[in-house]
Amino acid sequence: GKMNKAMEWLSDNKDPKIICHPAVVMFSDVFWGQLANRYFLLGRLYFLFMLIVFLFSQSILNHLHAHIEDEKEEEYIGIFACRIVIYLGSMTRFIYQQMKQLITDCRSGNVTRIGGILPVPTYLFSYKEFGSMVLMTCLILMLCLEPILHCLGSDNKKLFYPHCKEAKNIKDAYSVIAAVAMLLYWLLLTDLTVFSMRISAFLLVIGRVASEVGLFLGALVYIIVSFASAISSLNQKLKDFAGMHVGGLSLWEIALGMYPTSHFEQVMDEPFVMVAIWLFAVLIAVFLMNLLIAQLNGAYAAVYDDMVGYARLNRAAVIVTTLEQVSDKRWARFIQAQRFEERLEFNEGDIGLPGGLQLTEPSNANPTTVDAIRRFGGSTSRAMPWPEEENLDGGDDDKFDRLEKLIVRATKNMGGSGRSKKGGSSSAGASGSGGGSAGAEEEGSE
After folding, report:
1. CA geometry: angle at 137 spanning 136 and 142, to 5°?
2. Is the pLDDT of residue 114 over 80?
3. Confidence (pTM)
4. Which residue among 101, 137, 150, 409 is least crowded, i.e. fewest CB within 10 A of its CB?
């Protein structure tokens, strides 16, 4: 049969506590270590290869020389070859995946309406799928604005020359889109952190506390706009605050500590501007920065206990997605390798039941003095009556257990009696009588 839906349900439940249960950890590690990690790694290696090709075409081969006149035709051929590989091997793959998931969600009605009006396929709410969609769009725009294609009809003697007059006006837009695509390639490569629980947990913590940084930046922009508009309303002649847009840029530099100190001498000539900047600096440096630190500490403390659970939830989602690509033949080999039909050993020579997975542990990890498994000799036929249990009326083992409890209780009573004698004889007598009665009751029960 196919894989049970339990892993998918646990992944969809998003509970970091349940996913860390020892039984769940055991079978998820079996799926990941023996089956899913290989298929996932192969897919990521292909993506990594495309990233390297894109890196050579956009950031390495076109910057080998300081001047355009020194560039060679062989370099242009290499750049064009790398970009062809990206357009055919990466862009088309993204288009296929996005169209497949879009059609699947639309046919199944798996659509979420934003604001109750705009329908959006649910798969786009995953940061990975949304990033893939944006990267696909960037690659399509790059193909439309490709300078080499616009220069194919020019009179330049070099093959695949990208610096012709026809491509002059589009090179800036092409470079900006290429920079965004490069960042998205690196962002989507963070899926490889799923191989390490520690790194994956750290990355997830960054994502959890990033919202606090976003709130801080929003408050910072609001305060800058407020003070910039207020300072622009003053009767002052400072060039750094001549207008709301210029004043906002100057306040941004003050908040980041990049404002030139020599300019403060001019600010001191305007007392009202100086007071406004002083209030702005106190509000940012004293209040807002300390509030950000407190928020980050609180957010990290709230996520710290469950960060391994969130990392395992991320791996569980990867396992579910990856196992959908496993062939029936490979799945049958995996099931056969588990040997579920073989009986498991409780101890050496102690054969138990089939249909499970056996894990070993150090002998001193969980010491037990009483065997929890009751064993009976004889035939295992269902027609035979259930064997009677021995020592129900008290055997040697039970007597030794009661004797051990009696000694422990008497030791405690003698210790309490010794302490009571220091306080008075009455308490000693009471404790002695209590110990005696306890002993009498045990002896009577014997």
Report:
1. 100
2. yes
3. 0.69
4. 409
